[in-house]
Amino acid sequence: MIVRTTEEITGTERDITSADGNWRSKRIVLGADRVGFSFHETTIRAGSVNEFHYANHVEAVWLIEGDGILTDLDNGVVHQLGPGSMYLLDGHERHRVEPVTEMRMLCVFNPPVTGREVHDENGVYPLIEIPG
């Protein structure tokens, strides 16, 4: 059994802020935990524009606070997001997230991330093998 709090993760290597300061991700469960997924609490700054493309991962996102706009960059479809909204990037869609107010969300990645990934110039996390 694993029990963690966001308080104990805050300020550790599991607490990541983007280089531009637009988002912060607290990585609660990572690949080294060996459960087949990773689980994060992510906060995105209001008024920011964030483009992502998880070419190597499927991501499920559940918005628990805030409002914003999600744009599927593959087809231009726009979705309004608010508390209780969920989106699933099951087709590795390139997407843009534009918070109107600060957004706090819970995110699940499969395969799990290791915590060492950095978004590349296309917003992609590389697939890093988890040591056995």
In short:
This protein has 132 residues and is mainly beta. The chain is 3% helix and 42% strand. The model has no long low-confidence stretch (mean pLDDT 92).
| DSSP helical segment count | 1
Main sheet overview? 6 strands, antiparallel
In order across it, which strands form the biggest sheet?
1-2-3-10-5-8
Share of residues in helices: under 10%
Q: Which parts are unreliable, with pLDDT below 50 for 5 consecutive residues or more?
A: none
Distance from N terminus to C terminus (CA atoms, Å) equals: 19 Å
The helix-strand sequence is HEEEEEEEEEE
CA radius of gyration = 14 Å
Residue share in β-strands = 35-45%
Tally of DSSP β-strands: 10
Mean pLDDT: 92
Structural class: mainly beta
Give structural notes.
- The chain has one helix at residues 6-9, and strands at residues 15-17, 23-29, 38-44, 50-53, 58-65, 68-72, 78-81, 86-89, 94-99, 103-110.
- With 132 residues, it is mainly beta.
- The two termini are 19 Å apart.
- 22% of the residues are buried.
- The model has no long low-confidence stretch (mean pLDDT 92).
